[in-house]
């Protein structure tokens, strides 16, 4: 849990991802509780250059080109050869990256009673607007979640 201001209600990273996605027209959020500790889950999810491309169906390769604190810049290549320069934030349990044509959001938080709640959002961005093309986004996010679970064993 993270409080944003003294006296303010605290929300976890998954709730924060829901809020961010709600501000993006066409965005879908896929959420699931996985039976693994948050440290293990996030270690896999946040490995942008290694594991991320293994569970994200559209990504062939991601290369981090700059890190300054929690700010990240990366170049991603899709399985169709398209390239995106992503900029955003990567911190424990939270990742929000976007380029001119792509949005990627990931969050993980401990689930009361055990396990980790994971949330994914993203898709092809409508240039110049806070919107993603909804066609196929939910299916791709569901596939990414299934692949993530398989990677966790």
Secondary structure: elements and pairs:
Elements: H1 13-22, E1 29-34, H2 38-45, H3 52-55, E2 59-68, E3 71-78, E4 83-91, E5 94-98, E6 102-110, E7 116-124, H4 137-152
| Secondary structure: helix percent | 10-25%
The average pLDDT value, as a whole number, equals 88
Please name the fourth-level CATH homologous superfamily.
START domain
CATH architecture grouping: 2-Layer Sandwich
Query: Using DSSP, what is the number of strands?
Result: 7
Q: Low-confidence spans: pLDDT under 50, at least 5 residues?
A: none
Q: What is the 3D shape?
A: globular
Task: List the domain count as a whole number.
Answer: 1
Q: What's the main sheet like?
A: 7 strands, antiparallel
Radius of gyration: 15 Å
Could you please describe the fold and organization of this structure?
By secondary structure, this protein is of the alpha+beta class. It has a single domain, classed as Alpha-D-Glucose-1,6-Bisphosphate, Chain A, domain 4 (2-Layer Sandwich), CATH 3.30.530.20. Helix content is 25%, strand content 37%. The chain has 4 helices and 7 strands. Strands 1-7-6-5-4-3-2 form a 7-stranded antiparallel sheet, sandwiched between helices. A hairpin with a 2-residue loop joins strand 4 and strand 5. The radius of gyration is 15 Å and the shape is globular. The model has no long low-confidence stretch (mean pLDDT 88).
